[in-house]
């Protein structure tokens, strides 16, 4: 198990500008998979809104660099290790469950150990984090849980059995939390983007281009976005803005929902 890193949590006026939008001043957020992609954008947006952010990722250098940039705290942990997950702080007002991974193979060839790993990181870890953080939210009478799901939490695609299973499970967990937390001032929602321009997706684009013998542009337009009305990848900052909105003061009655950011995929 890797040791959690605890840099000085106080923001430095030399590196962290004053919050442009102080709507989350005094709040604490915990973001998993925060060193890159959607998680990084969420951590930056929450910090800019005034929250102190716990940056959780196994990529030590990237996590520490981001924490320094936003005046947050880096926690370098392997989220597939339940013992490591249980060392994370339990006092967050906002939890963004974002960490994930992908493996593509037909069910009859899917490695069972890989399937189990994906469930641990993308289902068990959010459960463990919420099990520890919800009591504090209840005590304070306020909290926001935002689970970064996917269009694959609402729809299925072939060859992604573990990922689709995990995202559907995360959707279910989110709804249960919404019902249990409703009387405590705590909301729980999912954000369900289509394909986002992240390192994980860019690697998939390159892999499929090699597999199909076509250009990466054709992979995006003809393969990935075939079912999407809008033929553009989503930017991480767009997802982060949706997350920030759900964490704001005017969304207390929005809970148990799944916000589709899929370019019209689920309209079909």
TrEMBL record:
InterPro entries the record matches: 3-OHbutyrate_DH (IPR011294), NAD(P)-bd_dom_sf (IPR036291), Sc_DH/Rdtase_CS (IPR020904), SDR (IPR050259), SDR_fam (IPR002347)
Pfam families on file: adh_short_C2 (PF13561)
PANTHER family found in the cross-reference section: 3-OXOACYL-(ACYL-CARRIER-PROTEIN) REDUCTASE (PTHR42879), 3-OXOACYL-[ACYL-CARRIER-PROTEIN] REDUCTASE FABG (PTHR42879:SF2)
Membership in a protein family: Belongs to the short-chain dehydrogenases/reductases (SDR) family.
Protein name (database record): 3-hydroxybutyrate dehydrogenase
Organism of derivation: Streptomyces gelaticus
Gene from which this protein is expressed: bdh
């Amino acid at each position: 198990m890797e040791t959690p890193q605890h840099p000085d949590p106080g923001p430095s006026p030399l590196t962290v500008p004053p919050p442009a939008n102080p709507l989350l001043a005094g709040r604490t957020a915990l973001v998993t998979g925060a060193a890159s992609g959607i998680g990084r954008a969420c951590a930056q947006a929450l910090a800019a809104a005034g929250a102190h952010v716990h940056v959780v990722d196994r990529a030590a250098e990237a996590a520490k660099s981001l924490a320094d940039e936003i005046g947050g705290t880096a926690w370098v942990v392997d989220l597939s290790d339940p013992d490591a997950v249980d060392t994370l702080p339990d006092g967050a007002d906002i939890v963004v469950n974002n960490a994930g991974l992908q493996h593509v193979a037909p069910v009859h060839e899917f490695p069972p150990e890989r399937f189990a790993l994906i469930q641990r990181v993308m289902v068990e870890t959010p459960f463990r984090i919420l099990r520890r953080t919800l009591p504090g939210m209840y005590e304070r009478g306020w909290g926001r849980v935002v689970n970064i799901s996917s269009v694959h939490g609402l729809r299925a695609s072939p060859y992604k059995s573990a990922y689709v299973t995990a995202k559907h499970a995360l959707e279910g967990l989110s709804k249960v939390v919404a019902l249990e937390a409703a009387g405590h001032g705590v909301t729980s929602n999912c954000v369900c983007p289509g394909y986002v321009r992240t390192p994980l997706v860019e690697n998939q684009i390159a892999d499929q281009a090699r597999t199909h013998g076509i250009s990466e542009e054709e992979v995006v337009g003809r393969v990935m976005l075939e079912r999407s009305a809008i033929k553009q990848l989503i930017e991480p900052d767009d997802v982060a803005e949706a997350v920030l909105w759900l964490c704001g003061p005017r969304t207390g009655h929005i809970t148990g929902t799944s916000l589709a950011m899929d370019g019209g995929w689920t309209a079909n």
